[in-house]
Amino acid sequence: MILGGDRGVVPPGQTEPMTLGEAVTPETQPISQPQRIDRYVGQYAERAVDMVASEIRALFAVAARPEIVSLAGGSPYVAALPLDVVGDMIGQLIASQGATALQYCTAQGDARLRERICDVMALEQVRAHPDEVVVTVGSQQALDLMARIFIDPGDVVLVEAPSYVGALGAFAAYQADVVHVAMDDDGLIPEALEEAIRRAAAAGRRAKFLYTVPNFHNPAGVTLAAGRRHRILDICRRAGLLVVEDNPYGLLGFDGEPMRALRADDTEGVVYLGTFSKTFAAGVRVGWAVAPTAIREKLILAAESAVLCHSSFSQLTVREYLDTQPWYEQIKDFRELYRERRDATLSALSRMMPPGCRWTRPTGGFYVWLRLPDGINAKAMLPRAISSRVAYVPGTGFYADGSGAQYARLCYSFPAPDRIGEGIRRLASVIETEVQLRDDFGPAH
Amino acid sequence: MILGGDRGVVPPGQTEPMTLGEAVTPETQPISQPQRIDRYVGQYAERAVDMVASEIRALFAVAARPEIVSLAGGSPYVAALPLDVVGDMIGQLIASQGATALQYCTAQGDARLRERICDVMALEQVRAHPDEVVVTVGSQQALDLMARIFIDPGDVVLVEAPSYVGALGAFAAYQADVVHVAMDDDGLIPEALEEAIRRAAAAGRRAKFLYTVPNFHNPAGVTLAAGRRHRILDICRRAGLLVVEDNPYGLLGFDGEPMRALRADDTEGVVYLGTFSKTFAAGVRVGWAVAPTAIREKLILAAESAVLCHSSFSQLTVREYLDTQPWYEQIKDFRELYRERRDATLSALSRMMPPGCRWTRPTGGFYVWLRLPDGINAKAMLPRAISSRVAYVPGTGFYADGSGAQYARLCYSFPAPDRIGEGIRRLASVIETEVQLRDDFGPAH
Fold this sequence. Notes:
homodimer; alpha/beta; Aspartate Aminotransferase, domain 1; 3 domains; 8-stranded mixed sheet; 4-stranded antiparallel sheet
């Protein structure tokens, strides 16, 4: 299926098979406006004027209650790590190398950690030199820094439809004009990409980069087919379009070997982003970027301006973990854990979802992208879902333009399989009620 | 003395007592330009076009060699911590609370850590609620976020003359128009601040905020006198000028109790920035901002866009340290350590510096601000100093406008006292040679 390509650029000549009911009109008003008078109104930077908390933030605070099955999160199941062993390792690290681990380091990041990062990337056929790596505060900082060095207000950035909410936030913070490009079950559609580039050119504009999550997409759960990868690279190369390849889940595939990264076939046209958040621990906030020389130099300078340097404490912890622990075996354990949860998710969806629902079938990673029956609005439904003790993320968060209301992201990485089943049972029941209401009264606003 | 106020705004009617030789013409050309062709030239954001590595960066790589006495750094002496005890503490933390410490957290930061941060600030008479605190990746991130939410290109920001290099970098990254305001041995001069506000208003502009380091200033080593603090707050309040109070060193005074923070007397007009970098460990990168409600909300949203969330691992480590270790006794130990190093610095300067040198006498913190004899350029002299195995930071780094070439920042926090003495002996000898050259051939360029 085309994944919410209803608002993204679709290939020419291809008609959009999904219809959207009236219910998808985006709600742009926050639920509540701050009551307090802000004496600094009028003094903020233009980029900060519209910075207001999303209305689903308050709901998620509620969703953290233990009686609620949260399929919203996106959190890795770090309790699967041997915490006592990791604790011992860190304790010894501080006792023996604390004077370095508790000190400032360079903005580029620890040199030996960067060597080990190159070893990790070799699993996806990326051949990089440690000098090409910049350590970042999670991948999110890499996204922020890429936006910072490339995006002037109004610049076009191409992203998938849907796209990762954190990337959209980073690009919006620099006032990008985000253009969505359609995906299907094989990931980004090359013809849609060509069309998006053509349209930008026709409008006298040139996109600054293409942002893509090729493996086990967040939120769509799909993977860019091997046969499309060269095609996408070719299109971008001909257009002089930089590719930002964001790959948090690449090592968490459930079948066969990790796929070959885009960066493996284009060292000058691709900026690769990686992270240890899902393969070790999100709480250390260690990610990285691999970039062509000139971009890398700017990333380092931008990182220095943003945070001076990353935490040595976190970096040396990851380095020590990679040096002394069976990290690849641990990744295999994570894969099995998440495969079991994926299976529980797909099985429960098949058994319980009412007619009119469709969903993707991920072969790795954390996410299923669920399309609700026509006329059902995932955002409007969320409070009722939470009342029924199940949470998800409405699809609107994954579009820059307010579309996606018929979709929901389900994340299966954190709850145990039986809890996933129970959550989907509750969700199915909520959807059924919504469908009944729709049939009785017409689509809700 | 007025501290390099030669280019800063000085009080009306006050003439600048220092003369600058020809030698201070700022060198704006980097020593080397990148040789490689950058295919992305023309695609960077405007803010990134001039982002090039500073020419002293390469020198500092050399300055890290052990035979060189580095008075450049700014690094705390973290080896004074009981590393085995801290290591044990962290090991136990991960073993018992790893599922939280290795997981994502909220963008505002850990709630219990924010409570403990309020306890720390109470030492400086700041009464804040944990809800008002945002945890940041060191103070540097707080500076970046403040710039991000307040500065449009060309906006005026007032800073001291000289000012902290990291703040200048953060403001420059958002294309601020930085205006320096003169200081003397009692810190920021109120009349100079009034004059700077007046001049901005006369030019039809309004400064977005005043950035100030009131205690043990980096790089100047001076402290804002108690008698001036209300005056500064009054001036800012009348002008509607937000104050950003950056206070990394406030608890590291050598005499008496910590001074009362500016934030203690104005909760709505002051954003207070703190950090554990100097009171615990720089390598955990845990700082914080306390801000009025509306600003705090924007800081949280901006932090989320920049890094998603801070490291739970670092935050819970600091929290555990504050909960279980004698942290205030450790700060007292740090004070004594740095006092001894300050004494070694001032004693060596008095004994060895040639005529024509002047310097500040810090009562806390890490820095002495040294004025070289007329016609001696600290930046031009640096390669010769490093050849003589001593390093410092040239004053130009602490000005947005290229001035400050007659000054050097000496940091005494890291080397042992005898090494400090040896470093200053070497530096004195280098300066004497420069003076001799100046006398024989005139000021160098």
